[in-house]
Specification:
Strand order of the largest sheet: 1-2-3
Helix content: 55-70%
Order of helices and strands: HHEEHE
Number of helices: 3
Distance between the termini: 167 Å
Number of domains: 1
Strand content: 5-15%
Length: 163
């Protein structure tokens, strides 16, 4: 009986060695890779952080550019609005100035100073309303109005009254 146990031992050893070898080959064949070292993990984390920072920088620069463009557009829009308002104001001042000059020049005329002539100016177009002592005075009022700087047109609606 002892002889059987002794004769089986080399066979068991061979079987055990074959089993362990097969297991080792199986683990190697599975493609199991070694875990990263601590240094490799730190390097990988640094690389991901650098990439995230670069992405954030690109997004921030884009946002800054957009904000600058909006500010420039807003400034240009405000400048245009101010220029338009200034032009409208200048037009109103010009019309008021024209009206005042026409009234002053009509007041200097001896035939027209005694009558009330209404002078209205819109965009350089002067309208004369009211009485005129004669046709000659009516025509002279139109000539006086046309002579004022800035007048583009005169609408003479003066009515000759019989005295």
């Amino acid at each position: 009986m002892n002889t059987l146990k002794i004769s089986q031992r080399p066979a068991q050893r061979v079987a055990t060695i074959l089993a362990v070898s097969a297991l080792a080959l199986g683990l190697t064949a599975c493609g199991k890779t070694e875990d990263q070292t601590v240094g490799q993990r730190v390097d990988s984390a640094i690389e991901r952080t650098d990439q995230a920072a670069a992405d954030a920088r690109v997004r921030a620069e884009g946002a800054i550019d957009n904000a600058q463009n909006r500010m420039e557009q807003g400034a240009a829009s405000a400048e245009n609005a101010m220029a338009n308002a200034g032009n409208r104001t200048m037009g109103a001042i010009d019309d008021a100035t024209i009206t005042a000059k026409v009234n002053a020049d009509l007041a200097r005329d001896p035939d027209l100073s005694a009558v009330k002539i209404n002078v209205d100016t819109v965009n350089g177009k002067v309208t004369l309303n009211g009485p005129a002592p004669s046709t000659v005075a009516r025509d002279r009022a139109e000539t006086i109005a046309k002579a004022v700087e800035g007048v583009t047109e005169v609408n003479n609606q003066l009515v000759v009254t019989a005295s």
